[in-house]
Amino acid sequence: QVQLVESGGGLVQAGGSLRLSCAASGSIDSFNIMRWYRQAPGKQRELVATITETGYTNYVDAVKGRFTISRDNGKNTVILQMNSLKPEDTAVYYCNVREPRIGFRESWGQGTQVTVSS
Questions:
Q1: Distance, CA of 3 to CA of 25 (rounded, Å)
Q2: Upper half-sphere CA count for residue 44 (Cβ side, 13 Å)
Q3: CA 78 to CA 89: how far, in whole Å?
Q4: What gap in Å lies between CA 85 and CA 87, rounded to an integer?
Q5: Can you give the C-alpha Rg of the chain in angstroms?
Q6: What is the pLDDT of residues 33-57, one digit of tens each?
């Protein structure tokens, strides 16, 4: 079982920055993929950024050039640095870990609110 705890959300003005952190604890396989998703009111959950255990990254087009995902494998932590925030980035952000060697087991954090005012 893997537990994920997110932190770092809050209220920021457009153009500002926030840094989200997600710490994984429990029995986690070293071969894993860490992701950030977000869900805005009335919308489906959206994949924002992905990072593999080797450091390969991928982003949804809407955040490319503004968000950066990184990880510390020793601490089982994933970070989402969000710059040049826009009101449309307002959402609840969720951390996700997928473990392909454990039957593609997925774990989710509780979510952290990010609100960007115009």
A1: 5
A2: 2
A3: 19
A4: 7
A5: 14
A6: 999 999 999 999 999 999 999 999 9
